[in-house]
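Researcher: We're teaching a course module on how sequence relates to structure. For the next exercise, students receive a sequence and then see the predicted structure as tokens, so they can try to spot secondary structure elements on their own. Here is the exercise chain.
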Amino acid sequence: MNDDEAGSRGRDVRDIVAARLPGYAIRSVTLLGEGEDNVAYQVTGVGGELIVRFAKDPDPEARAARVEGEARLLAAVADLAPLPVPEPCFADAERGCLAYRKLPGLPLTGVPLSRWPKHAETVGAAAGELLAALHGAAAEHLVPLVEVDHQPPRVWLEEAAQMYATVAARVPAARRPAIEAFLEAPPPPGPEALAFSHNDLGVEHVLLDPATGTVTGVIDWSDAAICDPAYDFGLLYRDLGPAALDRALSRYPGDGRREAIAARAAFYARCSLLEDLAYGLDPGQDVYLSKSLAALERLYPDAVARGAQGSRDLGM
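Model: And here is the predicted structure for the students to work with:
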């Protein structure tokens, strides 16, 4: 986005908020960030802070459908989730705009990486309760709001191998044999059933009060889908390690399912780590690079470490 576009969109933000929330006195509009699907602004005013997002789909009908669908989804998730989630203040489907009150707290990616282990069990427990609630929901009521997002584990492994080829030069030599052994090994069995889930529950979407360590919300539900229930557990394991996974599974019902979920979670953690590492190599994504390099040693230990770790390594 160039300066002219940014200025024009900033004026759009002010116009939309003034029209939809006439009692809200705007003090400032700040560009938060831009991804493949949306550009987001923070609006500060007398009535608190808003997040105002614009969908980037160039097709007006597809853009409107996306915004309307996400507004309905967030309303449904708010009824299910034991944690705060964004709840729309308004949606302007024609202009591809969705606005909601900013939740308190920082994404965990805004906390120094060295402090993540301190928060792992707290985040794991909160995430386990959230996933238990989401996965226990009647999927047929949510199917109209989300898509099915599932591919066999062998496809995940094939894509992980392709991703590894793009990042291998940045992988420390001590980690490469373990990665290559993983990519050559057979994948785990797929899930017996799919479930509704966040489908992108990495640390960038978990909000935390850095002073108290309390989880204050979960954001960015745009990838929510009917998917393998183990996938979000895998992202927790990838980013925060076994302590977070153990606590999450301890809050999850059904002892008989936990072992299979843990095995697939480790598989997804290893596959998605390679994708995260590739993303971290892009300009401006240093936090992803740092967390990925830190996780490599844990998820892909060398032969000596694997021998010491033994059965505690859930996926190998």
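Model: If you want an answer key for the exercise: The longest strand covers residues 26-34. Residues 3-101 form a domain with the Phosphorylase Kinase; domain 1 fold (CATH 3.30.200.20).
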